[in-house]
């Protein structure tokens, strides 16, 4: 989908579908919608009076122009109540409109920027919201199928602006929104690909290629490098797989690391999680979903891509430890004890608590950068879904100020997080008789979420740190605006927002 901008009059634009908007409670539309209403002899006003054009957030009303204007179809998009309107409402509404246009089979769509007029949003931000929503809503996962795709895809979205003076601002906003959404969709592709295709080596190659394209520095540690570094806990998970583990390091503004604040982002990269010898018996029929257990890593690649293209004024480091969690004769076993890069030891209680293991060594490695903040993203526990469902990710803030920054970014991006506790009492539950710490409380089933965060905290160094559990957000079972079914790459927009707002 190409998004372009055109200065001109809404009545002159030819496209399969033309999208204008309306706030709830407005009886006589103004601006572009008003101009169109006039050209149509007051038919929009008439529909409003009849109660057939509500203006409710995301509602769309279809009209045919019968030649009164250049476009044959018109969608009047509801923006909801004016005092409840914000960037997130603009995104939600835009997504609903583009979805309706796609359903109508449109190849070309023309639209105004929602919320930049009476809506009171900053024009560049409103334009970014529009671009984001269009690209995220119409995303489809990669398929390896010979069957043709059924639905026709929208080829072009033309953004129409009457005021020539505003065009440059809108253009800049569209570019920002496009970069962010394409970075999300880049991560979604990796997330959706099956584990036989998206192996650790393939993801590392993808990272290298992407880095070269956007101007990031990329280093990939191989198994031997990890051995030299003493990453015994990460390597313990990798022992059971024929796929060699990889540790991807992406860096934005590496040359300016002395002058800029350093943010390190860490993503769990389990390319497939069978559970290991603590096999996922209870959830065997949905085990295919564990191909997305590398969403954190995919997110980190997407975030670094956006950071480079938006040129955020920070030193940003992305770390993605990548391995399968499978079994063979060399695989780790419950009861095994391993030593990590920091010299700390851990006892394996469950080989299915593998995410925290690979993150332990990645968090130790993060210390090398003397960072101002470290944030990890991980599909870490089923329990977070029990607590929050598919409506928010769990935020475990080891540092209060960093937690607040993340919550502010969540508010602005619309990617929600909810704070979870990190009391030291949870650490007591993972004390081990044989090592510094154990990786699960089994057979005790309680406290599964917070003990996972306490385990991670045990391996953090002296830097502000927060952990975000995205297990219940990574794969969408019930589509909602901007999140079609399947891979969501939840977390990319959240942390890109955080980076952009950092200073
Ligand atoms: N990748 C899973 C977490 C998960 C479960 C993500 C369901 C999405 C849906 C993780 O590695 C895992 O297996 N966690 C265990 C931890 C337990 C063994 C302490 C869990 O949540 O059951
Ligand atoms: Mn697991
Ligand atoms: Zn896992």
Structurally, how many domains make up the residues? Answer: 2
Classified in CATH, the superfamily of the largest domain is Zn peptidases
Beta strand count: 20
Structural class: alpha/beta
Shape descriptor: elongated
State the separation between the terminal residues, measured CA to CA. 33 Å
What does the radius of gyration come to?
A: 24 Å
Structure summarized in a few sentences:
By secondary structure, the chain is α/β, with parallel strands linked by helices. The protein is about 35% helix and about 20% strand. The mean pLDDT is about 95.
Overview of the structural elements:
With 503 residues, the chain is α/β, with parallel strands linked by helices. It has two domains: 2-179, Leucine Aminopeptidase, subunit E, domain 1; 193-501, Zn peptidases (Aminopeptidase). The chain contains 15 helices and 20 strands. The protein has helices spanning 31-39, 43-50, 87-103, 123-137, 167-192, 200-214, 223-229, 232-238, 295-309, 355-366, 383-388, 400-413, 424-428, 448-458, 492-500; strands spanning 2-7, 17-22, 60-64, 73-78, 108-111, 156-161, 217-221, 246-252, 262-267, 269-273, 315-325, 337-339, 345-347, 373-378, 393-397, 417-419, 437-438, 465-469, 475-476, 486-487. Strands 7, 8, 9, 10, 11, 14, 15, 16 and 18 form a nine-stranded mixed β-sheet that branches. It has a six-stranded mixed β-sheet with strand order 1-6-5-2-4-3, with helices on both faces. A hairpin with a 5-residue loop joins strand 12 and strand 13. Helix 4 runs parallel beside helix 5, helix 8 runs antiparallel to helix 10 and helix 9 (295-309) runs parallel beside helix 15. The longest helix has 26 residues, at 167-192. The chain is elongated and about 80 Å long. Bound molecules: ligand BES, manganese (II) ion and zinc ion. Residues 270, 273, 293, 354-355 line the site of zinc ion.
């Amino acid at each position: 989908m190409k998004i372009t901008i055109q200065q001109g009059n809404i009545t002159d634009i030819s496209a399969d579908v033309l999208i204008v908007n309306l706030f709830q409670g407005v009886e006589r539309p103004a601006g572009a919608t008003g101009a169109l209403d006039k050209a149509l002899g007051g038919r929009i006003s008439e529909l409003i009076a009849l109660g057939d054009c509500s203006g409710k957030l995301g509602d769309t009303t279809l009209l045919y122009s019968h030649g009164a204007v250049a476009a044959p179809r018109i969608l009047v998009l509801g923006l909801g109540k004016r005092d409840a309107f914000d960037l997130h409402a603009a995104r939600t509404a835009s997504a609903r409109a583009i979805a309706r246009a796609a359903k109508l089979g449109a190849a070309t769509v023309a639209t105004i920027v929602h919320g930049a007029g009476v809506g009171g949003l900053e024009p560049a931000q409103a334009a970014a919201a529009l671009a984001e929503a269009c690209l995220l809503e119409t995303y489809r996962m990669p398929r390896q199928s010979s069957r043709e795709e059924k639905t026709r895809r929208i080829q072009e979205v033309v953004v129409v602006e009457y005021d020539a003076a505003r065009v440059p601002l809108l253009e800049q906003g569209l570019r920002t929104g496009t970069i962010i959404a394409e970075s999300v969709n880049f991560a979604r592709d990796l997330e959706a690909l099956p584990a036989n295709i998206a192996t650790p080596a393939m993801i590392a190659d993808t990272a290298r290629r992407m880095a070269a394209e956007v101007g990031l520095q990329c280093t990939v540690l191989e198994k031997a490098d990890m051995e030299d570094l003493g990453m015994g806990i990460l390597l313990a998970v990798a022992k059971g797989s024929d796929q060699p583990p990889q540790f991807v390091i992406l860096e934005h503004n590496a040359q300016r690391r002395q002058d800029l604040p350093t943010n390190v982002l860490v993503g769990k990269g389990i390319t497939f999680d069978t559970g290991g010898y603590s096999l996922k018996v209870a959830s065997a029929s949905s085990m295919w979903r564990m191909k997305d257990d590398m969403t954190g890593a995919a997110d980190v690649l997407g975030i670094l891509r956006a950071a480079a293209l938006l040129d955020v004024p920070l030193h940003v480091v992305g770390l993605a430890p990548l391995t399968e969690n499978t079994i063979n004769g060399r695989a780790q076993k419950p009861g095994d004890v391993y030593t990590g890069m920091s010299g700390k030891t851990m006892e394996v209680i469950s080989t299915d608590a593998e995410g925290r293991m690979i993150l332990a060594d990645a968090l130790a490695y993060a210390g090398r950068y003397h960072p101002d903040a470290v944030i990890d993203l991980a599909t870490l526990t089923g329990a977070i879904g029990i607590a929050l469902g598919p409506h928010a990710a769990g935020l475990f803030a080891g540092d209060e100020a960093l937690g607040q920054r993340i919550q502010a970014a969540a508010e602005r991006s619309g990617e929600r997080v909810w704070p979870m506790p990190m009391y030291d009492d949870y650490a007591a539950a993972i004390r081990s008789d044989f090592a510094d710490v154990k990786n699960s409380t089994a057979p005790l089933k309680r406290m599964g979420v917070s003990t996972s965060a306490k385990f991670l905290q045990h391996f953090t160094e002296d830097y502000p740190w927060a952990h975000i559990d995205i297990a219940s957000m990574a794969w969408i079972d019930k589509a909602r605006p901007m999140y079609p079914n399947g891979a969501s790459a939840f977390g990319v927009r959240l942390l890109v927002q955080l980076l952009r707002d950092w200073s």
